[in-house]
Every structure is written in structure tokens, then in C-alpha cells.
Amino acid sequence: xxxxxxxxxxxxxxxxxxxxxxxxxxxxxxxxxxxxxxxxxxxxxxxxxxxxxxxxxxxxxxxxxxxxxxxxxxxxxxxxxxxxxxxxxxxxxxxxxxxxxxxxxxxxxxxxxxxxxxxxxxxxxxxxxxxxxxxxxxxxxxxxxxxxxxxxxxxxxxxxxxxxxxxxxxxxxxxxxxxxxxxxxxxxxxxxxxxxxxxxxxxxxxxxxxxxxxxxxxxxxxxxxxxxxxxxxxxxxxxxxxxxxxxxxxxx
Length: 252
Ligand SMILES: Cc1ncc(COP(=O)(O)O)c(C=O)c1O
Description:
42% of the residues lie in helices and 14% in strands. By secondary structure, it is α/β, with parallel strands linked by helices. Strand 3 (59-63), helix 4 and strand 4 form a beta-alpha-beta unit. The chain starts with a strand and ends in a 7-residue tail after the last helix. The structure holds pyridoxal-5'-phosphate. Pyridoxal-5'-phosphate (PLP) binds at residues 30, 63-70, 137-138, 182, 184-185, 213-214.
């Protein structure tokens, strides 16, 4: 059996490929419930490690593309939060693809080709064209239904950062820790640094847990461009979201 695979942006082509070949199946990733729940092994492991360290986080941070990475670290803590624990759950995304912070919580397709089932989620519109930023894994127009619902219920929150600020955070992190992070992960690092600096400014102690979702060994060209001052920031405009909302499927 063939398996069609896709990175964000070519998802429709992968679905089409699977739909037009008898011997090919396509398994939707990141946004779907089973994928998010599968990833929660990360948060469960983090909980065990925090326990060993004798700590519990005040803030849990993950970067957010389609949502499974954030879900993985955050969902076990969301369960604690629903049972009364004080913990903030922060999903960090790019300003160029601000699904949680600027998207609308409504029914939409998961792909540009409109072949997936409709999902209630935060969306920038299925006709969203991903900008050419370096955090390629964060350029998806939608979000996991479960993550979206947590955000809509006020149990989790989105935060958006521009790519140059994220690379700056990544370079600081690489110098301090000797680990080169993926551009995607740098969004979580940026959020963690922000929270730490705010705690410092307020003279408070804060336990911050973030998920370093990947290394940047294949992203050296992006670091090169950042260090050469060739990267630009991009803020996805509200008007573009509004224009896309007019093209949403009518439900109910
Ligand atoms: C290193 C890295 N971190 C995070 C993500 C985002 O994952 P998700 O789509 O589950 O939000 C990706 C996606 O490709 C990635 O490559």
C-alpha cells in the first residue's frame, strides 16, 4: 500500500493523490483528536519529570502549527487545570499565521482542496496561502478542534510572535544551552523567555515548562539568513481573515 504524506501547504495534493489511487491511504495528522491524544505521552512524561524535580509548572508552553505538538505537552496539564490546578497553557504561533490569536472559531475544511470533513476550529480560512517563513511546520490555516475548544473555553491561550524575534530567542537559547532549536520550537522558546523576563520584572518566581519540539540541524540556511539580516517579519492582516470568512461553508 502507498502512503501519501504532506507537509502543510501540500496537504490537498496528498489527499488528492490518495483519493485517486486505489492502493493509497491518507492519514490526516496534527489537528485530529487521535494524533493530539497520542502526543500526550510528552505531557505525561513531563509531569513525571516535574514530579521528580519536586516542581509543578505555573506556565506550560508549546509552539502551535496544527496543534498536536501543543496538545502533547499541554493536555495532561489541562486535565489538572479542570480539576482546580492553577496553570497557564500557552500556545505560541507566528504572527504570519495567527490561527489561534486572529482566526475565527467556526466550521471549516482542513485543506485548501475542501476534501476533508468540516471541523469546528480556529481558522484563517481554508484558502489561506502560507507565507514563506522559516517555521514551515507552523503554517497551517486551522487548529485542532480540541485545542480550539480549550482556547474558546479560556483554558488555554494563544500568543503570536514575529519570526525575527523568535530567531533572536533561538540564538540566545543556543548560546546558553548548546542546543540549536528548530525555527518552529523557537516560538515556544520566545514565549518562555517572555514569561521569565516578566516574572523577573515582577520580582516573582515562576516555574516555566516548555516543549523543545525539534532541533534545527536542517535549518542552518534559515539561521544564516537571520544572522545576515535577510529575514523579514510579516503580520497576517485581519482584513485577509475577514475576506476568507466570506468563503466558509454554510453550516446549519
Ligand atoms: C519542530 C516542529 N515543532 C512543532 C511543529 C508543529 O506541530 P503541530 O502541527 O503539531 O502544531 C512542527 C510541525 O511540523 C515541527 O516541525
